[in-house]
Amino acid sequence: MKLLGSVTSPYTRKVRIVLAEKKIDCDFEIVDVNPPENPVNAHNPLGKIPAMILDDGTALYDSRVIVGFLDAVSPLSRLIPEDNRERVAVRRWEALADGSLDAGLLLRYESLRPKKEQSQAWAAKQAGKLKRGLATIAAELGDKPWCHGDRYTLADIALGCCLGWVEFRKPGGIEWRSEYANLARHYDKLMERPAFADTAPKA
Questions:
Q1: Residue 202 domain-assigned?
Q2: Does pTM top 0.90 for this prediction?
Q3: C-alpha to C-alpha distance for 182 and 176, rounded to whole angstroms
Q4: Host domain of residue 14
């Protein structure tokens, strides 16, 4: 298998962490999707990363689809519960973390546009989504050791990737560590895991 992605993409990081936790061998090819014509287009018509190419040539895209596939491939270190209610709870955490990330990414992209083309209203809307997402995440995590249940799951991975990217890029100048001590503790605990430490984005 081959994973197409970027070392700074939080969604690519999520897949890389799942691969490491599941101990699944996979080649990693760093690609640049900024040019209109790029290597990803041949595998994902949307031109987005991550994209995974299976041994039979089948292409999977969207990190949620990829990690769902990977968790089902091997029974080792299951990250998504089999029970329907438990599974939905974990995937809900993933959706909340990914949705917060989506807003953060849009906020960052807006800041990279020429000043005269930027929309303050659009940026404020995305910042609001990100802030509400982080506030909800912090409230639901509370003092629990893990996002859901009594063990590490995909929920924690998704949350960690979200927090790591926001800390790395600081979209809109958001500093979540100073506002949410419980999120800072949780992320620091996650960073003790080799899969997290080895995939942390670097400038």
A1: no
A2: yes
A3: 10
A4: 2-73
